[in-house]
């Protein structure tokens, strides 16, 4: 006895599925192309219907929704330990074994916690620092004593917040063995939990 042959593929269903996939690909490619072009500085390239189509109505944030400015200052929390040394207190990046590969959201909550502390200390002026941030934190005076209102605080005691830009990619090999220290601004707080 010979086995029954498999049923023939329904060509119209496969063709419709292929046309749908092609239509979705072209549609989303067009949206991405217009969003990218709107984010670029003025250039001689004009897209069809660009003068009548305002991308800010469709994508109000433009390409900034997907990206972050690589030149903006990064906030790095530091804690002063019992030995008097300043150590980084950041719980990021989120995708680490200590954060259960992103399941534990405490690292995300720390950003909100820093935001609450900065809002409470918004009147305090940040100090300029041209050295390694730990050296500047050691010399800085306490800007303000405040209370951490976060439900699960991770920043308690002597807290330093450093605002520093990342080392530009083009400079990555220019240090010749010495670490590059970017200028920063620091804020030292006495936080009660």
TrEMBL record:
Q: What UniProt keywords apply to this chain's record, in alphabetical order?
A: Membrane, Transmembrane, Transmembrane helix
Top-level taxon: Bacteria
Tell me which InterPro entries the record gives: Sporulation_SdpA
Any stretches that span the bilayer, and where are they?
Answer: 20-40
Keyword Transmembrane helix assigned to the entry: answer is: yes
- Does Transmembrane appear among the keywords? yes
One of its Pfam families is SdpA
Q: What is the official name of this protein in its record?
A: SdpA family antimicrobial peptide system protein
This chain's source organism reads: Cystobacter ferrugineus
């Amino acid at each position: 006895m010979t086995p029954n042959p498999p049923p023939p593929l329904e060509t119209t269903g496969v063709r419709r599925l292929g046309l749908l996939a092609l239509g979705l690909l072209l549609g989303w490619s067009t949206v991405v192309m217009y969003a990218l072009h709107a984010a670029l500085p003025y250039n001689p390239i004009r897209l069809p219907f660009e003068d009548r189509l305002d991308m800010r109505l469709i994508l109000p944030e433009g390409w900034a929704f997907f990206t972050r400015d690589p030149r903006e200052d990064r906030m790095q929390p530091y804690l002063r330990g019992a030995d008097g040394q300043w150590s980084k207190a950041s719980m990021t990046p989120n995708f680490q074994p200590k954060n259960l590969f992103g399941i534990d959201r405490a690292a995300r909550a720390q950003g909100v916690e820093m935001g609450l502390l900065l809002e409470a200390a918004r009147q305090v002026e940040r100090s300029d620092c041209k050295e390694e941030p730990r050296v500047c934190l050691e010399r800085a005076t306490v800007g303000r004593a405040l209370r951490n209102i976060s439900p699960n605080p991770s920043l308690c005691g002597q807290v330093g917040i450093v605002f520093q830009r990342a080392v530009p990619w083009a400079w990555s090999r220019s240090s010749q063995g010495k670490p590059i220290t970017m200028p920063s601004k620091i804020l030292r707080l006495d936080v009660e939990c």
